Amino acid sequence: MLRAVEAGPSVVVCSTCRLSADAREDEGGRRGGALLAEAMREVQAADPALAGVEVQEMSCLFACQRHCAVHIRAPGRVGYVLGDFTPGKAAARAVLEYAMLHAQSEEGSVPYGQWPQEVKGHFITRTPPEGFVCA
Question: What is the tally of structural domains in the chain?
Answer without folding.
Answer: 1
